Each structure stands twice: as structure tokens, then as C-alpha cells.
């Protein structure tokens, strides 16, 4: 069997949804399960709804109304018959959000966020399933929350692989014999049936979960780029498509910040030796990138750029050494403030990191660190990672840049730099 994943950009309007249905019909070679993200920028819009609701600004309904109208417009462009049941189904999904918004917010933000934002995937999957069915495909819509079981870390839920695998294996193979399954990325459910989300851009990971549990032959992530490139075209003029990539290189690239695939996606696929094809929904005939078992290293150096980096240098106040005790305290503070470390380095008397400038939670982290350590901070930096670096590639990225920190191992070089 195969798994296809379609992201927000692939279902951003009526024409795009028609294209996705066309790809499902024409590029499926086998039994197929389709994982879809929320349409266009819906997740961002719904997180604004959640924010306005929790802050009680009085504007949550207005923001929701926009999301609703936008979806209704797309529906009207897909279905000529205004009495098609899909219109009511989508309206009902939004009514459920309205019920939440009518009450005073009692629960924690992260929990409320997941209950509201998950609606994006619910409506996109219902619309895609209804349209594909309408165009003649035998399709069944399933609720991912019945299958992807998680703990209750809202907004960053951890998957219970054992329970998830058991449910998926019990129900889905039989349905796949007769139907193409359409389900949601990004969402799961706790054992008490509360909706959770798996972290932003988590739909790739959902697709990998289904593929792994169903022992899929392969999985295809359909994107608006031709495949995995050796750099983001946003930062680089001449990018090259990488046609084949090992799991290890793919894990390393995504870990260091290549945004083409969600970092959690690759490992479950590597464990089961399931090939991952990254390919363009704009040019579906082109074969894109295959990530699979290969001894081949990356054919060319790859570059990953992260802007808005903060360099934090932490030293014990009494200039004692940085040892296990301080390190575990420091790591705990990063973890509890949900801050991911992009680069780290320690010496006898200092521990330094580069992290994304995410605003508020950094301020809280710094306050907590300063209680025990001497902390210095430098903002506005860039972190450049080069996989399979050489001196020429380093020189190329260092034009008009000053190095703040440099880390190298055999394959990867990380440069934290400042513009000069
Ligand atoms: N819709 C979610 C997001 O935008 C999940 C995804 O797109 O993968 O983060
Ligand atoms: Mg997305």
C-alpha cells in the first residue's frame, strides 16, 4: 500500500483541490491512504482565533467568520449542487468551534489551541474526500483521532506507538481493500478523547505514522517544490535538486532546519525501510527526490539557513566549572520553556547555545537562567549549516559575515554569524 501526503499549499483553493483529486486518481499504483493538512494558511488563521478567544478581545468570532467564509467560497466552487450534504458537514465543524468560543475560557491555552486549530484539518479532509468521491473515486473519510493516540502534551503531543499501531492494524487494512482512505495530518487524540496536535507542520509526521503502522511500500509527500533541494531558493540563487538521499542525510538535514520535511518524519520510515518520495504537485510527472537506503552520501554540499538567531552564553557566577549538575539544570529550563537548541557548545566555564528568537518564552528562560548564572545574549544572528562542507562552501557563505561561533564534525559545519 501507499501513503500520499498533501500539505496546505496543495489544497489552497478549488483548483488545487481538483488537482489533488487528479493526482490521487492518476498516480496511485496500489491501495492508498491520503493524509491532508489544513487548506492554505488556515492553521495560522485559526491560531489567531484561539489567541483572541483566550485574551477575550471580543474579536474571535470575526476571525472565525473569515475562515468560515473562505472555506464556503471554495466549496461553492467545487460543488454545483448547493444541497450537497458537504455544505452542512462543514458548517457543523465550524458550529463546534462557535460552541467553544461562546463559553468563557477556563482551560489552558495549549489545550484550547488544539481543540480550535484542529478544525482546519477536519474541514480540509472532509472537503477533499467529498470532492474525490464526487469525481468517481471510492473514498472513505476517517478520523485520525480514532487512530493516532497520544499523551496530553497539547500542541506537541507524543505518539503512543503501540496503541496507535494496534488500532491502525486492526481496522484499516480491510477498508483499504475497497476504498481510498482520506484522513487528517497533524492531529491525534488522548486516551480521554481530547484532540491533540503533533507540532506545527506535523502532517508529514502523521503520514509517516500511518505508513509505518501499515507497512507501506512507499510514501509520497507532494509539495510546491520539485523535491529536496541543496538549499532553500529563498536564500540561494542556484539551487540543485537532489534526486536520491540516504535516510541519515535526510534526518541530519531536517534536524538542522531544512524545512522541506518535518524532522520527525524520517526515523519511523527508516526503521521500516519505507521509501519516501518528495515530489511536486505542480509537475506530478517529474520524479522528485527519493529518500531510501543508499550508501551514497549527498552528491553536493547542502546549505541550511536560519535567521533571527539568539546566541546565549551561560557561565556559573562563581566561575566554577560547567558540570553535569549545571547542565541538567540548564537543559531542564530549555525543555520546560519549550525552546529548541539549534547549536550548542560547552567549555570548562561556559555553555553556549543558538536558539530561535521566539520572543516571550525566551524572556522567561533568560530570567530563570539569570537567577543562577551570568548570562550574555546577542540577537539578530544567522545560523548557517553546511552538510558535506569544504573550504570553498564556507568561504561562499561568509561573504560580509563575521563568525561568532563555529562547530565542525566530519560531515557538518555550523557557523553562527553576524552581518557586517
Ligand atoms: N496545518 C498544520 C500546520 O500548518 C500542519 C501541517 O501543515 O503539517 O502547521
Ligand atoms: Mg503545512
TrEMBL record:
UniProt binding sites for substrate: 43, 121
Annotated Gene Ontology cellular component terms: cytosol
GO biological process: homoserine biosynthetic process; lysine biosynthetic process via diaminopimelate; threonine biosynthetic process
Domain Aspartate/glutamate/uridylate kinase as annotated: residue spans: 2-278
Residues the entry annotates as binding ATP: 5-8
Catalytic activity: L-aspartate + ATP = 4-phospho-L-aspartate + ADP
UniProt EC number: 2.7.2.4
Record-level Gene Ontology MF annotations: aspartate kinase activity; ATP binding
First-level EC class: transferase
Top-rank taxon, per record: Bacteria
Pfam family, one: AA_kinase
Metabolic or biological pathway: Amino-acid biosynthesis; L-threonine biosynthesis; L-threonine from L-aspartate: step 1/5; Amino-acid biosynthesis; L-methionine biosynthesis via de novo pathway; L-homoserine from L-aspartate: step 1/3; Amino-acid biosynthesis; L-lysine biosynthesis via DAP pathway; (S)-tetrahydrodipicolinate from L-aspartate: step 1/4
Keyword annotations from UniProtKB, A to Z: Amino-acid biosynthesis, ATP-binding, Kinase, Nucleotide-binding, Transferase
PANTHER family to which the protein is assigned, alphabetical: ASPARTATE KINASE, ASPARTOKINASE
Entry similarity comment: Belongs to the aspartokinase family.
Protein's UniProt name: Aspartokinase
